[in-house]
UniProtKB/TrEMBL annotation:
Membrane-spanning ranges: none
Record's GO cellular component terms: cytosol
Pfam families in the cross-refs: Aconitase, Aconitase_2_N, Aconitase_B_N
Signal peptide: none
Domain Aconitase/3-isopropylmalate dehydratase large subunit alpha/beta/alpha, residue spans: 410-894
GO BP, sorted A to Z: propionate catabolic process, 2-methylcitrate cycle; tricarboxylic acid cycle
EC number annotated for this UniProt entry: 4.2.1.3, 4.2.1.99
SUPFAM superfamilies named among the record's database cross-references: Aconitase B, N-terminal domain, Aconitase iron-sulfur domain, LeuD/IlvD-like
Organism: Alteromonas portus
Name recorded for this polypeptide: Bifunctional aconitate hydratase 2/2-methylisocitrate dehydratase
Class of enzymatic activity (EC top level): lyase
The UniProt record lists the keyword Amino-acid biosynthesis: no
Protein keywords: Iron, Iron-sulfur, Lyase, Metal-binding
Length: 936
């Protein structure tokens, strides 16, 4: 059976079973067969083959793209003749293929001796921006050899004509509103975690956005208002909270965006999204990737009385009133010049933050990638020609306040900034390019990252990236057919690209399913590093880490850079003393609760960097705070530690990296060994006093300062989804923090200890609680199931060596076996302890789930509707979040414990201790010149 026959069979299956179009082609062998049928003018499949070749072949560096580019080049040269594809049309098709083989073909043509071929090919080449070193070297060599065409192309690049000749962003954009949901909209609504396996198949994945009914309503709105774009809205909430999903934006663009190219199937751009409280920071970055628009509507405001005081409801929350309506079907106008939102002639809101010069460039260029590559290409051309590049792009926004110190994040950005004109230190609000030190890709967004790398024609990791890791944690709990099909391909691609991979395509080392954030925390070996990871919980306790979409991860891997504004910071310090029976997780939850109380319900963390003075808490434990900062809606978080703690954390990182090396995980470039060398260098700097541990200046300026009183924390604190709140917009927000006494014996159906929020100490706590209960009662019986998933294999190995794993295994009714991993997700649970494979497990929501309608108490990070537990017909599922000891005791009792029961259960157990620094860790500012010297 031919590949084409198999493809036809797949097409029929997709059409009849799923109602889908043919899957885009990425196979070189299949496209070669199709090309053979095109050449055979009598072939019965020739007409369809032409359509597949022209309209349904993936561009970039896919294997199929190489075959397509070669055939198009042969047509341009006259070596092949196809009536339907003229040489002119062949060049047009090459222009839409986005780089890699197509740029190679265009260079072959433009630098050829045949002027009739070279000139038109050069005109197409001038429109391309995805050129890499091999491409630019060819142009430079030809130019130095006196090639006139090469000189002409370089002159065009130096003027950035690939950008300046693009159409301007329309001054007026009509939109028609669509309320996607009320309250915060999680990216789970736009791209559900349980559909992660299909993300790389864009048309198929698009079927899971919101609901089929919503998709049809969006289509009908578009038909009814053909001159308007449908704008998806989070009414009385924030759009895109929770995760960093490119797939969510892709889905919105698929239903409400516009095609990127007539020759690239199901890749759309320029969606418009909005929220009463704006767009979540990570999601907004993803919108920029597609050249879209994200609006902060502010259409609900706090109600005030005649004295100007905020009116509050029975719970003490501010009462909101509608400033203007955005009900579904409302036609509005975005004025991109005035930067205002209008309903007819009535001005509704100032939206200038959505139309900065940089964002306007993204919209004009069709996305942020094209701007990043365009700037690099312009600089290269000007340098090669020996001319000064004209100011085409908006200058980097460089904000500097004389005499003002630097926050920790400002120091990190100053150290890593590239292409900065000023010698003065940069402050928040500056918009700069920065070197990215560490990059992480996770396994359910990884296939999309591969697609993005292919589409931008990248073939190898940037040499400036210090470390990069591809995880296997999001598909760890169930090794089903979907995972078996997707993950080996992902690991092979990333391994070849130069990334350290959890699974070894060559089978040398044991497959690792360690939680990505834990690995990234281990391989971050500099407290001044910038980390980009394909997950919202990329929040390291060393350096500053930003969760990002799969596209931004791809860009960081390919270029070693990212572009973003320097964010504002909020300073968090602690006072008082942590009580013996409290866990650090309780401090984390109390931080959120006390902050909201201090600022009358305003979340001052949202969109900003939290700089928390951890002091003496090691990186593993401090990560519990930074990890949760995603749920605080912060853009990132930085732990300020003293010198001794930072050195100890770096030594721990070194030992973990060495274990990876010993397992055989290092690559040909010795990336992991390079990280150990960098850690040694940083430790030496701290010990010598040359560069102490990162700390802000004592005259730095913060958006707000929050002081957390540890004395107030006397009960385990629980983050509650508040599923029955009468105000729908206040459900599933992570902002409702309650003490355990509130629940007063509430039944518990399932407990989960795992995900990135736990560390080795949590596993030790479980073992000690089991020992205590065994000593007290003679044995341990669970009245509710307890699922335990250690975050890493290192932890499992250490627990086995120290004897704690033996205790866990003794009471486990199920223990994972890597030789025979589960091939199907569990749907029912017994009242036993389940020792699961390291990884995300229930927290991810794409494989294991609690039974519908369950009340779950978990250490995880997600309490969104349907994530950990779905609703049943009788009852809403609820995922309440708390500390490890609280989860364990609740499953033993089958209900929430009283405070006294809890205190008794943890008596004598060494919980995660935290003592705040005795003094402020801020330092006296150094000379401004010191900052500039250390810039990249």
């Amino acid at each position: 059976m031919s590949l084409y026959s198999e493809y036809l069979a797949e097409i029929e299956t997709r059409k009849t079973e799923l109602g889908l179009n043919p899957k885009p082609i990425d196979s070189a062998d299949l496209l070669s067969e199709i090309i053979a049928q095109i050449k055979d003018t009598t072939n019965e499949h020739r007409e369809d083959s032409l359509k597949f070749f022209i309209y349904n072949t993936l561009p970039g560096t896919t294997p199929a793209a190489g075959v397509k580019a070669q055939f198009l080049k042969e047509i341009v040269l006259g070596e092949e003749k196809v009536e339907e594809i003229t040489p002119e049309f062949a060049l047009e098709l090459l222009s839409h293929m986005k780089g890699g083989p197509s740029v190679e073909a265009l260079l072959d043509l433009a630098l050829s001796d045949d002027e009739a071929v070279a000139k038109p090919a050069a005109e197409v080449l001038k429109t391309q921006v995805y050129l890499y070193e091999a491409d630019t070297e060819r142009l430079e060599t030809a130019f130095k050899a006196g090639n006139a065409i090469a000189k002409d192309v370089l002159e065009s690049y130096a003027k950035a004509e690939f950008f300046t000749k693009l159409p301007e962003v329309p001054e007026k954009i009509e939109v028609v509103t669509y309320i996607a949901a009320e309250g915060d909209i999680s990216t789970d609504l736009l791209s559900p975690g349980n559909q992660a396996h299909s993300r790389a198949d864009r048309e198929l994945h698009g079927q899971c956005m919101i609901s089929p009914e919503a998709q049809q309503e969006i289509v009908e709105l578009g038909k009814k208002h053909p001159n308007a774009k449908v704008m998806l809205i989070a009414e009385k909430g924030t759009m895109g909270v929770g995760s960093s999903r490119m797939s969510g934006v892709n889905n919105v663009a698929l239903w409400a965006g516009e095609p990127t190219s007539p020759y690239i199937p199901f890749v759309n751009k320029a969606p418009i999204v909005a929220g009463t409280n704006g767009i979540a920071p990570i999601f907004l970055t993803t919108v920029d990737v597609t050249g879209g628009i994200g609006l902060d509507l502010k259409n609900w405001v706090k109600k005030t009385d005649e004295n100007g005081e905020v009116v509050r409801d029975a719970n003490g929350d501010p009462v909101l009133e509608e400033a203007y309506s955005v009900a579904t079907g409302t036609v509005l106008t975005i004025d991109t010049k005035a930067k205002k939102l209008y309903n007819g002639s009535q001005e509704l809101a100032d939206v200038s933050a959505s139309f900065t010069p940089q964002k306007m460039e993204f919209m004009k260029a069709g996305g942020s990638y094209a701007v990043v590559f365009g700037k690099q290409l312009q600089s290269f051309a000007a340098r090669t020609l020996g001319v000064k590049a004209p100011a085409v792009y908006a200058a980097s926004k460089e904000v500097s306040h004389e005499g003002q110190g630097l926050t920790a994040v400002e120091k990190i950005f100053n150290r890593n900034a590239v292409g900065v004109n000023s010698d003065a230190p940069l402050h928040a609000g500056s918009d700069v390019r920065v070197k990215v030190n560490i990059v992480g890709s996770q396994d359910t967004t990884g296939p999309m990252t591969c697609q993005e790398l292919e589409s931008m024609a990248a073939s190898t990791i940037s040499p400036t990236v210090d470390g990069a890791y591809q995880s296997g944690c999001h598909t760890a709990s169930v090794w089903d057919k979907k995972a078996q099909a997707n993950i080996p391909k992902l690991m092979s691609f990333m391994n070849n690209f130069g990334v350290i991979t959890a699974r070894d395509p060559k089978g040398v080392y044991h497959s690792m399913t360690d939680v990505i954030h834990k690995v990234l925390n281990d391989i971050t070996v500099d407290d001044r590093a910038i980390i980009i990871g394909g997950d919202s919980h990329t929040r390291m306790s060393k350096g500053v880490a930003f969760g990002a979409d799969s596209g931004t991860v791809a860009l960081a891997l390919a270029t070693g850079e990212a572009a973003m504004p320097i964010p504002e910071s909020v300073k968090v310090t602690f006072k008082g003393k942590m009580k013996e029976h409290m866990d650090f997780r309780d401090v984390v939850h109390a931080t959120q609760a006390q902050m909201l109380k201090q600022f009358s319900g305003e979340n001052v963390f949202q969109g900003r960097v939290i700089e928390v003075q951890i002091g003496t808490l090691l990186a593993d434990q401090a990560f519990t705070f930074t990890d949760w900062s995603a749920e605080m809606k912060a853009k990132a978080s930085i732990c300020i530690s003293n010198d001794e703690t930072m050195i100890a954390s770096l030594e721990l990182a070194k030992s973990r990296i060495q274990i990876m090396i010993d397992k055989g995980m290092d690559n040909e470039a010795n990336m992991l060994q390079g990280l150990i060398d960098l850690a040694d260098k940083r430790i030496a700097e701290i010990k010598s006093g040359e560069e102490p541990a990162l700390a802000p200046d004592d005259n730095a300026k913060y958006y707000a300062e929050v002081v957390i009183d540890l004395d107030q924390i006397d009960e385990p604190m629980i983050a509650d989804p508040d599923v029955n709140n009468e105000d729908v917009s206040k459900r599933y927000t992570h902002d409702v923090i309650r003490p355990v006494s509130y629940y007063d014996g509430k039944p518990v159906d399932l407990g989960f200890v795992g995900s990135c929020m736990v560390h080795k100490g949590d596993m030790q706590i479980i073992a000690q609680m089991l020992r205590n209960l065994e000593k007290l009662n003679g044995s341990v019986e669970f009245k509710a199931p307890l699922v335990v998933a250690p975050p890493t294999y290192n932890i499992v190995d250490e627990l086995k060596a120290e004897g704690d794993w033996e205790v866990l295994a003794k009471y486990a009714g199920f223990e994972f076996d890597d030789a025979q991993p589960k091939e199907a997700a569990r749907t029912k649970y017994d009242n036993i302890l389940y020792l699961e494979r390291p990884g995300c497990n229930l927290c991810m929501g794409n494989q294991e789930k609690a039974e519908p309608g369950d009340t779950v108490i978990a250490t995880s990070t997600r309490l969104f509707q349907g994530r950990v537990v779905a609703d049943s017909a009788e009852k809403k599922g609820e995922s309440l979040l708390g500390s490890t000891p609280l989860v364990v005791l609740s499953t033993v009792l089958g209900r929430f414990p009283t405070t006294e029961e809890y205190k008794q259960a943890v008596a004598g157990i060494d919980l995660t201790k935290f003592a705040p620094p005795s003094e402020d860790l801020a330092v006296k500012p150094k000379f401004e010149a010191d900052v500039a010297v250390k810039r990249v």
